[in-house]
Design goal:
The chain is built from twelve helices and twelve strands. By secondary structure, it is an alpha/beta fold. β8, α9 and β9 form a beta-alpha-beta unit. The longest helix has 24 residues.
Length: about 375
C-alpha cells in the first residue's frame, strides 16, 4: 500500500511539473523549482530586479570552478550538460557570476570507474569549487573520495545516480540530483508494457553491466510491475553494457533463441535502440498499435524521440535529464555562492513517452541542446 501511495504521489508531481514546464519552456525557463519558498525558488525562473541586484551584491562577480564527470560521453549526458549551460548562462547574465567548466569522462565504458577516481582527485588538487559526478564506481569507495574532497573545501554534487538505494546518512555529497530509478523508471516501464499488451505476452530484457546500481534499482521496479501482471513472462535476458552496439548484439542473440516475443525492455534508451535495430535485422515487425514487438527504454534522448516518431521505438521513460542539468546548477549556485542548505535527495519527475506525447519532450531536449552559450571543454 505504501508503494502504491508513493507511486501515485510521483504521478501527481509529474502532472504538476509537466504543466509548469510546458508553460515555461517557451520563455526559456526550466522546470521543477524544487527549492521550496526560500529565495532560491526565484532562481528557477522568476525575474525581479530588486532580488537580482541583492544576489549580485552577494556574488560580487565571483568565478565558480566546476568539474563535470559523467561515466561515459553519450547523448544523454550531452543533453544534461547542455541544460546546465543554459542555466549557467542565465545566472551569469542575471547575477554576474562567472563560470569555469571542465568536462572529463573516463576512457572506456561504464565499468571504467578508476578513471573517474583519478579525475576527481585531479580537481581536488586543483582546488575546484564544486564537482558534478555520475559514476558506476563502488559506493563506499566514492564516499571516501568525496569525504577527502569535503575536507579540502570542494563541494560534491551527484547527478543521475540511483541515490534512493544508498544509505542517506552515509552520503558525503551536498546534494544528489536525479530521479527514482525504481518507481519512476523500472516500474513505469513494466506497467507500460503490461498495459500495451493487455496483461499477457512474452518479454526479453536487456540490462546494464552486472552489479550496476542503476540495473539494481530499475529491476526492483520492473519486477514489481511483473508481479502485478503475472501474464507477462520473461523468456530471457542479457547484458547490453548501456551502449547501442552491445544492445544490438544482446537483442540479436536473444531474438535468435526466442523469436516469438511480444516486447523487449532495454534498461536504457541506447540499448533499446540497439534492440530496435535487431528487430529490423531479424525481419520482425515493430509494434503498430495492435501487433508486432513493443520496445521501451529509459533516458529521453532526441534520437529516441525521433525513433518513436518513425515507429522504430514504442516508448521510453524520460528521466528528466534537462531538468537535472538545470537543477544541478541551481544547487551548486545556491550552496557555493549563497551558502544555502539543500535537500540531500532532489528527485525530478519522469514520464513515459510514446507517440501520444513525444513532441513536447523532443522540443524541450532540443531547446537545451541549442544553447547559444558554451562553456569549458
Amino acid at each position: 500500500m505504501e508503494d502504491k501511495v508513493r507511486i501515485e504521489k510521483d504521478v501527481e508531481v509529474s502532472r504538476r511539473s509537466i504543466l509548469r514546464t510546458s508553460a515555461l519552456v517557451g520563455a526559456g525557463i526550466g522546470a521543477a523549482q524544487i527549492f521550496g519558498t526560500t529565495p532560491v525558488a526565484a532562481l528557477g525562473g522568476t525575474t525581479n530586479a530588486t532580488l537580482d541586484k541583492a544576489i549580485k551584491e552577494i556574488v560580487k562577480g565571483r568565478t565558480i570552478k566546476v568539474g563535470f564527470t559523467p561515466p561515459v560521453l553519450s547523448e544523454n549526458f550531452t543533453q544534461i550538460e547542455s541544460a546546465a549551460w543554459r542555466k549557467m548562462a542565465e545566472f551569469e547574465k542575471r547575477f554576474g557570476v562567472k563560470w569555469v567548466w571542465e568536462r572529463q569522462a573516463p576512457v572506456g565504458d561504464f565499468n571504467a570507474v578508476q578513471g573517474t577516481l583519478g579525475i576527481v582527485q585531479s580537481w581536488i588538487s586543483r582546488k575546484f569549487d564544486a564537482i558534478a559526478v555520475c559514476t558506476g564506481a563502488n559506493f563506499a569507495t566514492v564516499q571516501d573520495l568525496y569525504k577527502t574532497a569535503n575536507s579540502k573545501g570542494l563541494k560534491v554534487f551527484q547527478f543521475n545516480q540511483p541515490a534512493e538505494l544508498y544509505p542517506e546518512e552515509q552520503l558525503q555529497t551536498v546534494a544528489n540530483i536525479g530521479y527514482d530509478n525504481r518507481w519512476q523508471s523500472g516500474y513505469l516501464a513494466g506497467k507500460y508494457v503490461a498495459k500495451t499488451l493487455g496483461g499477457k505476452g512474452n518479454i526479453l530484457q536487456i540490462w546494464g553491466p552486472s552489479g550496476s546500481d542503476w540495473t539494481r534499482g530499475r529491476r526492483i521496479g520492473f519486477d514489481k510491475a511483473l508481479k502485478e501482471h503475472p501474464g507477462i513472462k520473461v523468456l530471457g535476458e542479457a547484458d547490453g553494457g548501456y551502449v547501442r552496439d552491445k544492445g544490438f548484439t544482446a537483442a540479436q542473440d536473444l531474438l535468435t533463441k526466442y523469436p516469438n516475443v511480444n516486447a523487449i525492455y532495454g534498461e536504457n534508451e541506447e540499448m533499446a535502440l540497439g534492440a530496435s535495430q535487431a528487430i529490423d535485422a531479424a525481419g520482425l515487425k515493430h509494434w503498430n498499435g495492435k501487433t508486432g514487438i513493443v520496445t521501451i527504454g529509459a533516458d529521453g534522448l532526441v534520437s529516441g524521440f525521433k525513433a518513436i516518431a518513425a515507429g522504430k521505438l514504442t516508448a521510453t521513460v524520460d528521466i528528466g535529464g534537462i531538468d537535472q542539468g538545470q537543477n544541478l546548477i541551481e544547487a551548486i549556485f545556491a550552496d557555493v555562492a549563497l551558502g544555502q542548505t539543500l535537500t540531500q535527495i532532489i528527485n525530478n519527475p519522469t514520464q513515459v513517452v510514446d507517440k501520444t506525447n513525444y513532441k513536447w519532450h523532443q522540443a524541450y531536449a532540443e531547446w537545451a541542446l541549442a544553447t547559444p552559450r558554451k562553456y569549458g571543454k
